[in-house]
């Protein structure tokens, strides 16, 4: 199975030929518009898709191809930090407070979580902080034997702040405790924060390159997975992100 995750930088309906050229079995697309509000060919192309977003023009979409199927998972819950004397709004949160996450099941075989973390610089729990909060709620859901978490995390170890116990390094460590490992780092044998291949170019500037898109995969699956990053010359003209391409072989060889 070929799984592609890509932040399309908006206007996916105008970029279908480019993404189709990858011949993916499953697409996880961040910053795409909701097909419900658009005419063909985008709506027809989307097929039996899943989508969630902050408005009809910007969300995360799951698009199965080549006869594959996806079903949304109803993951909802809450988490509360205990042992703090004075009550504070940040002590408790619900799944519905967080954005943007889309859990689903693939072919009734394994679970996936599509990720596009959001936030602003003036928010304490923005970007990777949003995912950390999601992780605290759904730790048990994410410990299923075969799980894939993939998407645009907007995060890298190089931006860690030591006084934030929800920074990138903490999240990576917590995922590893759950048996989920970054496929890129597993295959490339590179340390977090020292990636040789970027996935994002700020303002499409070659001098502002960062690795912020990831696939975290459970140990039972990762040994049969490979990863590629799309080439700059093929993608930078239509998005500030490069796609991450996961090739997964299940027991049946697909």
What report would you give on this structure?
With 254 residues, the protein is of the alpha+beta class. 17% of the residues lie in helices and 30% in strands. The protein contains 7 helices and 16 strands. The chain has helices spanning 16-20, 42-46, 128-137, 168-177, 183-188, 219-222, 232-235; strands spanning 2-7, 26-32, 50-55, 58-64, 70-72, 78-80, 92-94, 101-106, 110-116, 147-152, 180-182, 200-201, 209-210, 213-218, 225-229, 244-248. The strands form 4 sheets. A 6-stranded mixed sheet has the order 3-4-2-1-16-15. Strands 5-8-9-10-14-11 form a 6-stranded mixed sheet. A two-stranded antiparallel sheet has the order 6-7. The mean pLDDT is 93.
Kindly summarize this structure in a few lines.
The protein is of the alpha+beta class. The chain contains seven helices and 16 strands.
**Computed CA radius of gyration, to the nearest angstrom:** 18 Å
How many beta-strand runs? 16
Would you list the SSEs in sequence order as H and E? EHEHEEEEEEEHEHEHEEEHEHE
Largest sheet entry: 6 strands, mixed
Distance between the termini: 5 Å
Structural class: alpha+beta
Biggest sheet strand line-up: 3-4-2-1-16-15
**Regions with pLDDT < 50 over 5+ consecutive residues?**
none
User: Into which percent range does the helicity of residues fall?
Assistant: 10-25%
Q: What is the mean pLDDT?
A: 93
Instruction: Determine the number of helices (DSSP H or I, runs of at least 4 residues).
Output: 7
Shape: globular
Proportion of beta-strand residues: 25-35%
